[in-house]
Specification:
Blueprint lengths: L1 H17 L10 E3 L1 E2 L18 E6 L9 E8 L3 E9 L15 E6 L7 E6 L12 E6 L3 E9 L9 E12 L2 E8 L16 E4 L18 H20 L3
Parallel strand pairs: 1-12, 2-4
Antiparallel strand pairs: 3-4, 3-11, 4-5, 5-9, 6-7, 6-10, 8-9, 10-11, 10-12
This protein binds calcium ion (CA) (2 copies).
Length: 243
Protein backbone atom coordinates (compact mmCIF):
# COMPACT_ATOMS: atom_id res chain seq x y z
CA UNK A 1 0.00 0.00 0.00
CA UNK A 2 2.81 2.36 0.87
CA UNK A 3 4.52 1.81 -2.47
CA UNK A 4 1.27 2.22 -4.37
CA UNK A 5 0.66 5.55 -2.68
CA UNK A 6 4.21 6.66 -3.37
CA UNK A 7 3.93 5.78 -7.05
CA UNK A 8 0.57 7.50 -7.37
CA UNK A 9 1.93 10.59 -5.66
CA UNK A 10 4.99 10.58 -7.87
CA UNK A 11 2.80 10.36 -10.97
CA UNK A 12 0.68 13.29 -9.81
CA UNK A 13 3.76 15.30 -8.96
CA UNK A 14 5.41 14.48 -12.27
CA UNK A 15 2.29 15.68 -14.06
CA UNK A 16 2.29 18.89 -12.08
CA UNK A 17 5.95 19.54 -12.76
CA UNK A 18 5.73 18.60 -16.43
CA UNK A 19 3.03 21.21 -16.83
CA UNK A 20 5.49 23.96 -16.00
CA UNK A 21 9.21 24.57 -15.89
CA UNK A 22 8.99 26.42 -12.58
CA UNK A 23 10.37 23.48 -10.61
CA UNK A 24 13.54 21.69 -11.60
CA UNK A 25 12.83 18.43 -9.85
CA UNK A 26 9.88 16.41 -8.67
CA UNK A 27 10.21 16.78 -4.95
CA UNK A 28 8.81 18.33 -1.81
CA UNK A 29 8.49 22.12 -1.78
CA UNK A 30 8.50 24.26 1.34
CA UNK A 31 8.14 28.02 1.50
CA UNK A 32 10.22 30.49 3.45
CA UNK A 33 8.49 33.56 4.83
CA UNK A 34 10.15 36.95 4.54
CA UNK A 35 11.99 37.99 7.66
CA UNK A 36 15.25 38.47 9.52
CA UNK A 37 16.32 36.85 12.79
CA UNK A 38 19.00 37.18 15.42
CA UNK A 39 21.02 34.01 15.82
CA UNK A 40 20.81 33.37 19.55
CA UNK A 41 18.86 30.12 19.88
CA UNK A 42 15.68 32.00 20.75
CA UNK A 43 12.72 31.98 18.35
CA UNK A 44 12.23 35.48 16.94
CA UNK A 45 8.71 36.75 16.28
CA UNK A 46 9.61 36.81 12.56
CA UNK A 47 9.44 33.00 12.48
CA UNK A 48 5.73 33.16 13.30
CA UNK A 49 5.14 34.05 9.63
CA UNK A 50 6.70 30.77 8.53
CA UNK A 51 4.94 27.49 7.95
CA UNK A 52 5.80 24.90 10.58
CA UNK A 53 7.70 22.10 8.89
CA UNK A 54 7.46 18.82 10.76
CA UNK A 55 10.70 16.88 10.99
CA UNK A 56 9.33 13.39 11.47
CA UNK A 57 10.32 11.28 8.49
CA UNK A 58 12.88 8.56 9.04
CA UNK A 59 14.60 5.85 7.08
CA UNK A 60 12.51 2.68 7.47
CA UNK A 61 15.62 0.90 8.75
CA UNK A 62 16.04 3.33 11.61
CA UNK A 63 15.50 2.56 15.27
CA UNK A 64 12.81 5.04 16.24
CA UNK A 65 13.72 6.68 19.55
CA UNK A 66 10.89 9.23 19.35
CA UNK A 67 12.97 12.26 18.42
CA UNK A 68 11.10 14.81 16.33
CA UNK A 69 11.45 18.45 15.42
CA UNK A 70 9.59 21.42 14.05
CA UNK A 71 11.41 23.82 11.72
CA UNK A 72 10.59 27.40 10.78
CA UNK A 73 12.39 28.99 7.83
CA UNK A 74 12.50 32.67 6.95
CA UNK A 75 14.75 34.62 4.58
CA UNK A 76 15.76 38.13 3.65
CA UNK A 77 17.82 39.31 0.68
CA UNK A 78 21.07 37.82 1.96
CA UNK A 79 20.38 34.98 4.37
CA UNK A 80 18.14 32.09 5.24
CA UNK A 81 17.28 31.74 8.93
CA UNK A 82 16.20 28.42 10.38
CA UNK A 83 14.82 27.77 13.83
CA UNK A 84 14.33 24.14 14.84
CA UNK A 85 12.76 23.00 18.07
CA UNK A 86 13.68 19.39 18.82
CA UNK A 87 11.83 17.03 21.12
CA UNK A 88 14.39 14.56 22.45
CA UNK A 89 14.02 12.83 25.80
CA UNK A 90 17.68 11.75 25.89
CA UNK A 91 20.08 14.41 24.61
CA UNK A 92 23.36 12.62 24.10
CA UNK A 93 26.75 13.98 23.08
CA UNK A 94 29.01 11.18 24.24
CA UNK A 95 30.04 9.59 20.93
CA UNK A 96 33.53 10.31 19.62
CA UNK A 97 31.98 10.26 16.15
CA UNK A 98 30.36 13.65 15.68
CA UNK A 99 27.45 12.51 13.49
CA UNK A 100 26.47 10.09 16.25
CA UNK A 101 25.73 12.96 18.62
CA UNK A 102 22.35 14.66 18.87
CA UNK A 103 22.55 17.43 16.30
CA UNK A 104 20.93 19.26 13.40
CA UNK A 105 22.55 19.05 9.99
CA UNK A 106 21.94 21.64 7.28
CA UNK A 107 22.63 20.79 3.66
CA UNK A 108 22.93 23.14 0.71
CA UNK A 109 24.58 22.98 -2.67
CA UNK A 110 26.02 25.77 -4.78
CA UNK A 111 26.06 23.87 -8.08
CA UNK A 112 23.36 21.24 -7.70
CA UNK A 113 25.76 18.40 -6.95
CA UNK A 114 28.47 19.50 -4.52
CA UNK A 115 27.26 18.94 -0.97
CA UNK A 116 27.68 21.64 1.66
CA UNK A 117 27.07 19.97 5.02
CA UNK A 118 27.04 21.71 8.39
CA UNK A 119 26.40 20.15 11.80
CA UNK A 120 25.11 21.99 14.86
CA UNK A 121 25.32 20.04 18.09
CA UNK A 122 22.62 19.97 20.75
CA UNK A 123 25.24 20.77 23.34
CA UNK A 124 28.29 23.02 23.21
CA UNK A 125 29.37 25.49 20.57
CA UNK A 126 32.04 23.55 18.66
CA UNK A 127 29.73 23.26 15.67
CA UNK A 128 30.95 22.06 12.27
CA UNK A 129 29.92 24.94 10.02
CA UNK A 130 30.63 25.82 6.42
CA UNK A 131 32.06 29.29 5.84
CA UNK A 132 29.60 32.06 6.54
CA UNK A 133 27.14 30.04 8.60
CA UNK A 134 26.31 31.02 12.16
CA UNK A 135 24.51 28.80 14.64
CA UNK A 136 23.51 28.58 18.29
CA UNK A 137 21.93 25.68 20.14
CA UNK A 138 20.12 25.81 23.47
CA UNK A 139 19.03 22.96 25.72
CA UNK A 140 15.32 22.98 26.60
CA UNK A 141 13.03 21.01 28.87
CA UNK A 142 11.81 19.06 25.83
CA UNK A 143 15.18 18.56 24.20
CA UNK A 144 17.01 21.35 22.41
CA UNK A 145 16.53 24.27 20.03
CA UNK A 146 18.82 25.21 17.17
CA UNK A 147 19.00 28.45 15.21
CA UNK A 148 21.17 28.82 12.14
CA UNK A 149 21.88 31.47 9.53
CA UNK A 150 22.79 30.31 6.02
CA UNK A 151 24.05 32.90 3.50
CA UNK A 152 22.17 32.68 0.22
CA UNK A 153 25.64 32.87 -1.33
CA UNK A 154 26.17 29.33 -0.02
CA UNK A 155 23.19 28.01 -1.96
CA UNK A 156 22.15 27.38 -5.55
CA UNK A 157 19.31 29.90 -5.32
CA UNK A 158 17.90 30.60 -8.75
CA UNK A 159 14.58 32.15 -9.65
CA UNK A 160 13.75 32.28 -5.95
CA UNK A 161 14.26 28.57 -5.35
CA UNK A 162 17.06 26.46 -3.97
CA UNK A 163 17.88 22.94 -2.86
CA UNK A 164 17.88 22.59 0.93
CA UNK A 165 17.79 19.81 3.48
CA UNK A 166 17.51 19.51 7.24
CA UNK A 167 18.46 16.41 9.19
CA UNK A 168 18.31 15.54 12.85
CA UNK A 169 20.82 13.02 14.10
CA UNK A 170 18.99 11.24 16.91
CA UNK A 171 21.36 9.63 19.36
CA UNK A 172 21.39 8.02 22.78
CA UNK A 173 23.92 6.08 24.82
CA UNK A 174 26.78 6.93 22.50
CA UNK A 175 25.26 5.93 19.19
CA UNK A 176 22.98 7.31 16.51
CA UNK A 177 19.60 5.59 16.40
CA UNK A 178 18.20 7.27 13.30
CA UNK A 179 18.13 10.35 11.15
CA UNK A 180 14.98 12.46 10.91
CA UNK A 181 13.94 14.61 7.93
CA UNK A 182 11.17 16.92 6.85
CA UNK A 183 7.76 15.40 6.28
CA UNK A 184 7.67 14.25 2.65
CA UNK A 185 11.45 14.41 2.23
CA UNK A 186 11.69 10.63 2.39
CA UNK A 187 15.04 10.48 0.53
CA UNK A 188 16.58 12.88 3.02
CA UNK A 189 18.54 10.16 4.76
CA UNK A 190 20.82 10.11 1.69
CA UNK A 191 21.50 13.86 1.95
CA UNK A 192 25.14 13.38 3.01
CA UNK A 193 25.89 11.81 -0.36
CA UNK A 194 23.06 12.85 -2.67
CA UNK A 195 22.16 16.49 -3.28
CA UNK A 196 19.20 15.39 -5.40
CA UNK A 197 17.49 14.19 -2.23
CA UNK A 198 17.10 17.74 -0.90
CA UNK A 199 13.72 19.45 -0.84
CA UNK A 200 13.03 22.64 -2.75
CA UNK A 201 12.88 25.79 -0.66
CA UNK A 202 10.94 28.56 -2.34
CA UNK A 203 11.69 32.13 -1.33
CA UNK A 204 8.82 33.38 -3.48
CA UNK A 205 6.11 32.15 -1.19
CA UNK A 206 5.99 35.00 1.28
CA UNK A 207 2.62 36.06 -0.08
CA UNK A 208 1.33 32.51 -0.42
CA UNK A 209 0.24 30.57 2.63
CA UNK A 210 0.87 26.88 2.17
CA UNK A 211 0.84 24.29 4.91
CA UNK A 212 2.20 20.80 4.95
CA UNK A 213 -1.24 19.25 4.87
CA UNK A 214 -1.59 20.35 1.28
CA UNK A 215 -3.81 23.40 1.41
CA UNK A 216 -3.15 26.69 -0.29
CA UNK A 217 -5.19 29.73 -1.19
CA UNK A 218 -6.34 29.94 -4.78
CA UNK A 219 -4.88 33.29 -5.69
CA UNK A 220 -3.82 32.67 -9.27
CA UNK A 221 -1.89 30.34 -11.50
CA UNK A 222 1.21 30.12 -9.33
CA UNK A 223 -0.87 29.35 -6.25
CA UNK A 224 -2.73 26.67 -8.19
CA UNK A 225 0.59 25.15 -9.16
CA UNK A 226 1.74 25.32 -5.57
CA UNK A 227 -1.46 23.57 -4.55
CA UNK A 228 -0.86 20.81 -7.10
CA UNK A 229 2.72 20.31 -6.01
CA UNK A 230 1.97 20.48 -2.31
CA UNK A 231 -1.00 18.17 -2.73
CA UNK A 232 1.27 15.67 -4.38
CA UNK A 233 3.77 16.14 -1.58
CA UNK A 234 0.92 15.56 0.85
CA UNK A 235 0.22 12.23 -0.79
CA UNK A 236 3.87 11.33 -0.39
CA UNK A 237 3.61 12.37 3.24
CA UNK A 238 0.77 9.89 3.72
CA UNK A 239 2.94 7.18 2.21
CA UNK A 240 6.12 7.93 4.11
CA UNK A 241 4.84 9.05 7.47
CA UNK A 242 6.86 7.73 10.31
CA UNK A 243 5.49 4.67 11.94
CA1 LIG B 1 16.77 34.20 17.42
CA1 LIG C 1 18.83 11.91 21.73
Amino acid sequence: MKKLLSLAAAAVLLTAVTATSAFAAADTVFYAAKGTATIDGVKDAAYDAATAINLNTTDDLATDDGTEGVAYIIADDTNIYVFVSVTDSAVDSTSATTYERDSLEVFTTMDGTTIEQSRIFAEGDAHELKDGLEAVSVKTDAGYDVEVKVPLANTNVSDGKLAFCLQLNAASEGKRNMTVHAEGNSDGYTAWTNAESYFTLSLDGSDVTVDNAGTAPETGASAALALAVVSAAGAVIVASKKK
